[in-house]
């Protein structure tokens, strides 16, 4: 089978608006969570989120065009621009039918949907923006990225809730490995920090109502009380190995394996025993052609909800047996919050950098141990340690489970 490597990466996150700034913040254990500024929270139970800060949209999209794009699409374009520049690929010299886009979102243009619903209610629905539909539909970030770079290969959008970003990377791996494409721009983007979005997740008791930024997103901590909403985008350039070598591309690491399953159990609650999440991990390890004990580090889904963190701990134990207690497991959502459809892509980037730099990011703000989450979660401080193989997990509403394996290229 053809090998697939990462040759470029881009990110817009609550802890940095490019990959370098994000990585430096993650290594330092910086918390990107703060008081919500996108809307007035006076009547909201939830006061905190992981917002993107200091982002200059006009540096990415012409001011006139900004009115035709939702924020999730703009974040995706910014991350894609960075990733393409980072990869130094010249699509003008490529067969663009062999270059595609798989760019996910869990919800899409929620900001636009809320605004235009309110406009329709007050002025009549025939008065909503003519750009409403193309701004709000979930595939539009993928479409805009393909348009910007003139990519004529497959262009699609994975929508599997919180697993979307990891499914996008895994599906891109298969498209390239199986010979359908040579290069794919893949990842995810999300922007749902609105009173509508926050209210929806609050009403289903998914979000933390903590007002202390250091005690809100606390994965694996016994006092965890729900996740904190994040936003942004992560984009990776996946490329066939020989194609990358031929053009002299730098290589971060190899995407070596992918597994995807479904709990088929409940629309929001994961299987408590973690059996199907474990199966996704097992399939990813098998797909990579390695043994479970080869995995050095897992970037966990680790949302900071009672059910997820317990279930994922059980899943890791099922998948890895005694080795579960020997590998490092951390949740970078403790710093970024939960970026929904973008989370898996951003965490794939962080995992790739962990492999490349032999640095394991921490689970910050960890204070109270939980017997249900008794793995080595790398509490509070990054760790220098050899990482030959890393795994990144994403588990989404609807029972979607996805895992990828990343391998050091030497």
Automatic annotation (TrEMBL):
Residues 1-408 form the Ketosynthase family 3 (KS3) domain. Keywords: Acyltransferase, Fatty acid biosynthesis, Fatty acid metabolism, Lipid biosynthesis, Lipid metabolism, Transferase. It is an enzyme of class 2 (transferase). Its EC number is 2.3.1.179. One of its GO terms (molecular function) is 3-oxoacyl-[acyl-carrier-protein] synthase activity. It comes from the Bacteria. The active site is at residue 162. It catalyses: a fatty acyl-[ACP] + malonyl-[ACP] + H(+) = a 3-oxoacyl-[ACP] + holo-[ACP] + CO2; (9Z)-hexadecenoyl-[ACP] + malonyl-[ACP] + H(+) = 3-oxo-(11Z)-octadecenoyl-[ACP] + holo-[ACP] + CO2. One of its GO terms (cellular component) is cytosol. One of its GO terms (biological process) is fatty acid biosynthetic process. Pathway: Lipid metabolism; fatty acid biosynthesis. InterPro entries: 3-oxoacyl-ACP_synth-2, Beta-ketoacyl_synthase, Ketoacyl_synth_AS, Ketoacyl_synth_C, Ketoacyl_synth_N, PKS_Beta-ketoAc_synthase_dom, Thiolase-like. NCBIfam families: fabF (TIGR03150), PRK07314.1 (NF005589). Involved in the type II fatty acid elongation cycle. Catalyzes the elongation of a wide range of acyl-ACP by the addition of two carbons from malonyl-ACP to an acyl acceptor. Can efficiently catalyze the conversion of palmitoleoyl-ACP (cis-hexadec-9-enoyl-ACP) to cis-vaccenoyl-ACP (cis-octadec-11-enoyl-ACP), an essential step in the thermal regulation of fatty acid composition. Belongs to the thiolase-like superfamily. Beta-ketoacyl-ACP synthases family. This is 3-oxoacyl-[acyl-carrier-protein] synthase 2. The lineage of its organism: Bacteria, Bacillati, Bacillota, Clostridia, Lachnospirales.
